[in-house]
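Subject: for your reference before the review

Hello V.,

The reviewers asked for a structural picture of the protein, and I figured it would be easier to keep everything in one thread rather than splitting it across files. Below is the amino acid sequence we used in the manuscript, unchanged from the supplementary table.
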Amino acid sequence: MDAFMDAFCPTAPQVRAPYSQLNNLLYKSYLPLIINSAAEMGLFDVLSAGDSFLEKLAEELNANVHVLDALLDVLEAVGLVAVQDGCYTLTSMSGTYLVSSSKVNQLRALRGFSGSRGPFDNLVEALRHDHVKTFNNRIWASEEAALSMEQVSKAGMIQEVVSFMKSIPGFSGARRMCDIAGSIGYYSLAMLRENDGLQAHVYDLPEVCAIARKVKRDDEHFERVTFHDFDITGSSWVDDGFDLFFCSHFLYEFGAKGTLVDFLKKVNASLKPGGYFVSSHISSYTTGENRLTFAMVELMTRAMGYPTHSLPEETLKEALGKAGFGDFTIQEPNEDLAFATMLLSARKLQETL
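And here is what came back from the structure prediction:
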């Protein structure tokens, strides 16, 4: 691992400090705006009148129940609401300082800390029941976004994924790999360094592939990567004959909408018999500091109009089983990493299409 890190990242010693600690600290900067949005919606005032279940609270606030659910999860993580058997109540802190009728409320002070220009600036609007937000699937289709995602991944997640991939029995002998929604190919390029005979095929939006060809052309092993213009909403699909099929942070919507089995059957058809599917996705909330960050990521995701940023382990395993996969290997999230994912490999056992 050290040899790989030294070759991949000149500042490898810095990676050994848990980036999750800094990432969690940065995400806390969003909290005043999130709390202020809840206050502006009247959430604390409504709960001051009595405990409430999610659906009733959404009705009283005229709020989008899906986004409100994520908001309450953040507020619970920071001790401003409590929940028992699905019923929400204020805590002593929020009841004292965040209810407008309280003689010692600190709402004016809260507003003074809420001047952020970030992803939660329109949270109040997103919380409204009649607000319809259409997710922009081009949000990552810029050079700045792609390079930012790569840089975050370099702080440990790429190394984690490559180490896991190397442990798969079929990795050393693999010759063709599909990297779907692979952005500018930073995961693929890292894997190529560990297998001299491997060719990678990265599928992403046309504008993302154009960026990749521009910013990665001088990278080692670039000639072993083929970037394919691809849009999942279209009628085309990837090639077949792959030994490996890698997928990172792409399956959340399929899991939420119940179409995961159909997608994975297409993955099955693209793999050779005995080939491996490898998933890197956030599977659930974690504990401690990371739990709060993931709760805020989930709130951000839903407020943007995307259904979720979590794919439960059982949902993925069940869908893979129905799609002809088995022989699962699972690595739990590494809490030292920012946006740590569950890594899962599954072998193609039978044809399904």
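For the response letter, the relevant points are probably these. The chain has two domains: 25-127, 143-348. The radius of gyration is 22 Å.

Happy to draft the paragraph if you're swamped.

O.
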